[in-house]
Design goal:
about 325 residues; mainly alpha; 12 helices; about 75% helix; LAAT-1; PQ-loop_rpt
C-alpha cells in the first residue's frame, strides 16, 4: 500500500538523522524555561549573565557558521538560538521588572502584615501542632517519592516525543528526496576550505558558551537550590549538543574536516560538560527543593511560627538572585 524507501545507514544518512533530531531538541529547549518563568511569575532561579553570554555566543556562532559554509543544520540551529535567546531575555526583563515593583509594594505593607498576624488566635497553635504530630511521617515520604516518579515519567515522555518527532521529520524529508528526479537523497560534501574570520568567530562563540554556564552554576551553588530553572531546559541542551557533535563526527574523521569544525565541536563538547555539572546540582539539591516546591501536608500550619519559618525558607532562596553573580 505504501511504497516507502528503505533506510541505508550510511554516514551522511546518520549525520542527517542526528542533525535533525538535534534541531528538534534545540527548537524545544527554550520552551520549558519560558513556561517555568510564566508559571512561577519569577526569574529568581535564572542568571541574566548566563542568558546574555549565551546570546552573544549564538550571534558569533551564526556569523561564523555562515561565513565558513558549514552544514545547513548548523546554520539553522545558530539562527534559531539567536532568536530564542532574545525571546527569553525579553521575558526575563519583563518578569524581573514585575518582581521589583511587587517587592517595593510588599515592603510598604510589611509592617501592617506583621501586626495582622499578631492578632491570630493563640489557641489555634496547640491544636494544629497536635494534629501535625499525629501526621504519619511515612505518608509524606511516599507522596514525595510518587511525585518524583511522576516527574521522571513526564520528562521521559516529553523527551521521547521530541526525539520521535525529529526522526519523523527527517524521514518525511528523506522520502521526498528519494522520490525526486535523482531517485535518492543528495548529500553535499562538507566544505574543507578554512576561512580565518569564520574560525575566529567560532572560537569566540566557544569561549562564550563555556563562560555562560559559570554564572548559572555559581548562582545555583550560592542558593543551594535549582528552584526556578527547568530540568528539561538543560536536558534538551545536553541532547542537542550530543547529537550535534555526532552529526559532525559521523560525516568524516579527516584531520582537515575536524580542523575546520573544531571550534564548533569544542563549544558543544565544553558546554555539554558544563550542563552535566548543572545536572549534578539538580540531583544534589533535589531533596532541599522538594521541601520548598513539594506537595503540602494535609493540615497546613496556621501558627505564627510556622508562617515565619515558611516565609524564611522562600526568602532565603529568592533573596540570592542573580545580582550576586
Amino acid at each position: 500500500m505504501f511504497d516507502l524507501p528503505p533506510i541505508e545507514l550510511s554516514r551522511p544518512v546518520v549525520s542527517e538523522i542526528a542533525g535533525t533530531i538535534s534541531i528538534s531538541c534545540w527548537i524545544i529547549v527554550f520552551i520549558p524555561q519560558i513556561y517555568e518563568i510564566y508559571k512561577t511569575k519569577s526569574t529568581r532561579g535564572l542568571s541574566l549573565h548566563f542568558l546574555v553570554l549565551w546570546l552573544i555566543g549564538d550571534i558569533f556562532n551564526l556569523l561564523g557558521s555562515v561565513i565558513q559554509g558549514l552544514l545547513l543544520t548548523v546554520i539553522l540551529l545558530a539562527a534559531y538560538y539567536t532568536l530564542a535567546d532574545m525571546v527569553l531575555i525579553l521575558q526575563y526583563m519583563v518578569y524581573r521588572r514585575r518582581e521589583e515593583l511587587a517587592s517595593a509594594a510588599g515592603i510598604r505593607h510589611l509592617a501592617s502584615d506583621e501586626n495582622f498576624a499578631a492578632l491570630e488566635p493563640i489557641l489555634l497553635s496547640p491544636t494544629t501542632s497536635h494534629v501535625e504530630e499525629l501526621e504519619p511521617l511515612l505518608s509524606h515520604c511516599e507522596v514525595a517519592r510518587t511525585s518524583t516518579f511522576h516527574r521522571f515519567l513526564h520528562n521521559f515522555c516529553i523527551v521521547s516525543g521530541v526525539i520521535g518527532m525529529g526522526f519523523i521529520s527527517w524521514y518525511v524529508s528523506f522520502i521526498r528526496s528519494c522520490r525526486g528526479e535523482h531517485g535518492q537523497p543528495i548529500h553535499h560534501p562538507p566544505n574543507l576550505v578554512m576561512n580565518p574570520w569564520a574560525q575566529v568567530f567560532g572560537y569566540i562563540s566557544a569561549v562564550l558558551y563555556l563562560s555562560s554556564r559559570i554564572p548559572q552554576i555559581w548562582l545555583n551553588f550560592k542558593r543551594k537550590s535549582c528552584v526556578g530553572i527547568s530540568l528539561l531546559f538543560f536536558l534538551f541542551a545536553c541532547l542537542g549538543n550530543m547529537l550535534f557533535i555526532a552529526s559532525l563526527l559521523v560525516v568524516s574523521l579527516d584531520p582537515q574536516y575536524l580542523k575546520v569544525n573544531f571550534s564548533w565541536l569544542l563549544g558543544s563538547a565544553g558546554t555539554l560538560l558544563m550542563d552535566l555539572t548543572i545536572f549534578i546540582q539538580f540531583f544534589i539539591y533535589d531533596s532541599d527543593d522538594d521541601v520548598v516546591t513539594g506537595p503540602a501536608p494535609p493540615t497546613a500550619p496556621s501558627s505564627k511560627t510556622s508562617k515565619r519559618s515558611s516565609r524564611h525558607t522562600y526568602d532565603t532562596i529568592d533573596g540570592l538572585d542573580d545580582s550576586i553573580v
